[in-house]
Amino acid sequence: MTPQGPSRRAVLALGLAAAPLAVGLELTGAAPAAARPRTAHPFRDPALPLKDRIDDLLRRLTRAEKITLLHQHQPAVPRLGIRPFRTGTEALHGVAWLGPATVFPQAVGLASTWHPALIRRVGAAVGDEARGFQHERPEGWGLNLWAPVVNLLRDPRWGRNEEGYSEDPHLTGVISTAYGAGLQGDDPVHLKTAPTIKHYLANNNETRRTTSDSVLRPRVLKEYDEAAFRPALSADAVTGVMSSYNLVNGRPATVHPGLNDTVRRWAKKDLFNVTDADAPNNLLPGAQDYYPTRAEGDAAALKAGIDSFTADSAEPGKTVKALTTALEKGLIDEADIDTAVRHLLGIRFRLGEFDPDGGPYAQISRSVIDSPAHRALARETADEAIVLLKNDDAALPLDAKTLKKVAVVGPLADTLYTDWYSGTLPYAITPLKGVTERLGSAGTVTTSEGVDRVAFRNKATGAYLTAGSGANGAVLTEKGGSADATGQFDVFEWGQGVVTLRSVANGKYVGYDGKAFRNDQEQPNGWYVQQQFVLEERDDGSRLIRYAGYETAADWFGDKTYLTADAAGTLRLTTEDDAARYEAEVVRGGVEHAVEAVRGADAAVVVVGSMPCINGREDHDRTDMALAAGQDALVKAVRTANPRTIVVLETSYPVTTTWERVPAVLWTTHAGQETGHAVADVLFGDHNPAGRLTQTWYRSADDLPDLLDYDIIASDRTYLYFRGDPLYPFGHGLSYTSFRYGRPELSAHTVDADGTVTVSVRVTNTGDRAGDEVVQLYTHQRTSRDKQPLRQLRGFARVHLEAGRSTTVRLPLRAADLAHWDVTRGRWAVESSVHDVLVGASSRDIRGRAALRVDGERIPARDLSGTTRAADFDDYRGVRIVDESRVRGEAVGATERGDWIVFRDAELGSGAREFTARVAKEGGGSGTVQVRLGSPDGPLAGTAEVRGTGDRYTYATVTAPLRGARGRHDVHLVFSDAMRLSTFSLR
Questions:
Q1: Residue 552 has pLDDT above 60, yes or no
Q2: Signal peptide: which range, if any (predicted)?
Q3: Which residues is 957 bridged to in the sheet?
Q4: What letters, b where the CB count within 10 A reaches 16 and e where it falls short, cover 27-49?
Q5: What are the tens digits of pLDDT across the range 825-867?
Q6: Average pLDDT of the chain, as a whole number
Q7: pLDDT class for 18, splitting at 50, 70, 90?
Q8: Separation between Cα atoms, residue 243 and residue 845, nearest integer Å
Q9: What is the rounded CA–CA span in Å between residue 819 and residue 785?
Q10: Which phi and psi (to 5°) does residue 209 adopt?
Q11: Which of 185, 848, 849, 950 is the most buried (most CB within 10 A)?
């Protein structure tokens, strides 16, 4: 979720998207009759079946009271003793926005462990802390957690990459199920917390995110995007979904019929579905322009499967008015209201709210927050999340016994940055602290952040830009004289010219509050990151200081405004023409200072990476995948000065930078309070790294199609289809030991479509130290009617082996999991084919293979004589899949002459004589749909004339006689101009 402007800060302060936990309504919670408490109403009796309790409470609520419960901020019902309830506490990698709490690695780091049992423990700890906060929260803060995020990391440029788990649906499903199950707890009746999975559906870009359209052909929808959501929902590991901001095939996700038709069908128990923040208002003119009024939009969302409206901050008035109006106008009926209220009451009952004792989790106290056990778990998880990307000539691990001097340098060496959804760090172990602590008194540690220290002198007046020296800083002014500490700033570069300025006088960053610039910020932060600047060099060597905070949405860095000073020396913003010109006097060169620190060191550790609030985050995609140029130059200079250089790369996503001569590279996410301990644990070999990449690291942005192209099949996107040479492949990660794989053995070499085989492989630790190996199972279907992935993850196991020991890893492989979506019949199909069974250490490091014959079916030739949905094409050019109506259904939308769709291998028999189609043409005039055989410019079998229908949702039936349409052909439908085709037949 994200606000659209300053007025929505209140919404953000209350929380955003998260992930679901599904638990049912068949709970009974029996208690001995003699022990049953006396209750005022049956709904408070935990001995009754849950359905009966919900029925009782629902009957007691008035219609007006029920409607008020459909807003995010559910008010109290005093006459029934019901307290307020609020949906949406953020908990992606720890409880966020409520004060200091245990901060675990970012979500992509959690998945990098490939360790579902560990992630379930993390989820359980976060659930405990959410309960711990419950005792002291403001009234209404609740236990509906908005986590995990399961949107696939289809494109590494996505600003919210840190929030997801993987580009692979299977891995995403395993990790999200583990985390959700931990959040939810193990009680068979009650919930510790109620997680909501997000964001449904196909949400992997921030660019124009409320109006962009994720176009999903049926195979991509079924095999990829839906596949990420299904596992946690089917396992009852989440209790609902959050709809996303974007459109899916032309229809806003807020009113997507899949919220009912698909998602609820997966779950065994009732779900509680919510909108993203302010999404109901996005349906209106000025944004998605899908419905003219809130009443119509809210009614459509309710009928589609939304149970709770996150809109207008804490004020439910607009939602209540809209739903009341919808009821009065007959757009919804009271049964629709009751259905949604049942869903939300089910969650509140299962959380124990209406039990006399609050349920089994009510006694969890605040003492669990940042407890010693959770600190230890945070360190363990940060250890397991680190990926060793490169380790030439066994440069790592370092031997603490022989090191006399270690240098730890770089802009992230002695700081920990937090992201938008992070909790507040209770303490911070930076890489410098971790290394210093680990080395102890046996050696010395030198350091440098490797950033320039600069004084800015107004070229015209000679006055220096000056900050305050107190803890709270001061308004920046220009003053004459020399530049002492108050006139010096450390310049941190984050790429694309953007820098942050930290005052030397008090260690605080310079920020803007809309009126003045002050050095009072602990780090770049906030929805509008108002601590960003660009130093624009002029021909005379002077610099203009451009303010680059997100004060507007005009472009990535906002409108171009610059610093100048008035006659009193007070800074203000102005245009480029009136901007002050500053001479940037370098007090201390960052690269030179770092080089001095690493000279003569037995090892140089350079810590570089991203700033999560700047380089890419919610509402802002990355436009460049490279590391900041200054950081890249720092690494190269350090390596030149000290050949034993180790790079610690701390980012929320893949980067494209390579350092050919750097012997070792570690990657970690922003891993929370224990980051520095984890880095030191791995550097010195106290922990043998076993993290693995969960997405492809590309060599260049040129390897990627357009960000908004969601057709991973056509564009060869992700490890599933990518044919290029990645920088680091999906599943990659090195160890300080080595592992030998035996030949994979199959329990059977042939399997029926509903059968299962076991893949067994002997794995031996051939090194001299204990370590973990992540054994990965992939398959590839050799023959198919349709384009198949080059490789696809089917299972994995993380195993621990002592030096010299072996184990047999056994991974089940279900033939049903080898199915793909058959567009010719609109169902899953397991084809008869031989599958390569691939076992290895990554998607590109295959150590052994076997062949498995699957006795499935042969997809028959297409039969186009019945009604065929146009969206079930095999291939296309130019067209988009669009909404057939506002409520449900999909059509094909052509935009210009020559757009086409094809239906391959169609059996037309002895001859089809007539083409019939349902077509909508919003524009005036007439157009045509041509039926061509073999290719878009192949033999013309018929032409149907299409006249304007006046509306994109008004369809007319058109026909055309066919000639020569016999035998077996690829049938192409070629469009003359803009129109929509929903269904057709050739008879």
A1: no
A2: 1-24
A3: 918
A4: bebeeeeeeeeeeeeebbbbbbe
A5: 999 999 999 999 999 999 999 999 999 999 999 999 999 999 9
A6: 94
A7: very low
A8: 37
A9: 12
A10: -65, -20
A11: 185
Residue with tokens 């927050």: 369
CA distance 586 to 454: 5
Sort residue 203 into left (φ over 0), alpha (ψ -120 to 50) or beta: beta
Strands 820-822 and 827-829: antiparallel
Residue 564: closest CA among 550, 548, 577, 551: 577
Closest CA to 757 of 870, 839, 698: 839
Q: Which of 127-141, 344-358, 454-468, 700-714 has the lowest mean pLDDT?
A: 127-141
Contact criterion met (CB below 8 Å) for 191 and 127: no
**Residue found under tokens 């060599």:** 699
Phi, psi of 511, rounded to the nearest 5 degrees: -135, 170
Beta-sheet strands, E only, within 677-826: 739-741, 745-746, 750-752, 756-765, 771-781, 792-801, 806-814, 820-822
Please state the rounded mean pLDDT for residues 435-444. Answer: 94
What percent of the chain is predicted at pLDDT more than 70?
Answer: 95
Q: Among candidates 257, 330, 260, 320, which has minimal Cα distance to 294?
A: 320
CB 833 within 8 A of CB 783: yes
Angle at alpha carbon of residue 320, lines to 317 and 325, rounded to 5°: 120
Distance CA 521, CA 640 (A): 35
> Cα 839 to the chain's mean position, in Å?
28
Report helix angle 372-385 to 116-134, nearest 10: 140
- Name which of 625, 811, 819, 635 is nearest 728 in CA terms: 625
Assign 30 a pLDDT band (cuts: 50, 70, 90): very low
Q: Which residues contact 208 (CB under 8 A, 6 or more apart)?
A: none
Give the neighbor-by-neighbor strand order of the sheet with 792-801: 750-752, 846-855, 833-840, 771-781, 792-801
- Residue showing tokens 């990307």: 389
Render pLDDT for 953-980 as a digit per residue (tens, 0 to 9): 999 999 999 999 999 999 999 999 999 9
Residue type, 859: I
Give one word for 434, left, alpha or beta, with left for phi > 0 and alpha for psi -120 to 50. alpha
In terms of DSSP bridges, do strands 956-961 and 914-920 run parallel, antiparallel, or are they unpaired? Answer: antiparallel
Alpha-helical segments (H) within 555-672: 590-598, 629-641
pLDDT tens sequence across 863-914:
999 999 999 999 999 999 999 999 999 999 999 999 999 999 999 999 999 9
Domains of the chain and any CATH numbers: 6-350 (3.20.20.300), 386-449+590-703 (3.40.50.1700), 452-588 (2.80.10.50), 737-855 (2.60.40.10), 868-986 (2.60.120.260)
Phi, psi of 50, deg, nearest 5? -60, -40
- Distance separating alpha carbons of residues 731 and 740, to the nearest angstrom: 17
| 74-102 pLDDT, tens digit each | 999 999 999 999 999 999 999 999 999 99
Q: DSSP states of 272-312 as a string?
A: --BPPTTHHHHTSTTTT---SSHHHHHHHHHHHT--BB--S
Identity (one letter) of the amino acid at 670?
Answer: H
Residues 213-267: tens digit of each pLDDT: 999 999 999 999 999 999 999 999 999 999 999 999 999 999 999 999 999 999 9
Under the banding of pLDDT at 50, 70 and 90, the label for residue 24 is: very low
Average pLDDT over residues 353-369: 96
Q: Give the dihedral sign, CA 911/912/914/919.
A: negative
Measured CA to CA, the distance from residue 518 to residue 581 in angstroms comes to 20
Count of residues in the chain:
987
φ/ψ region of 188 (left if φ > 0, alpha if ψ in -120 to 50, else beta) reads: alpha
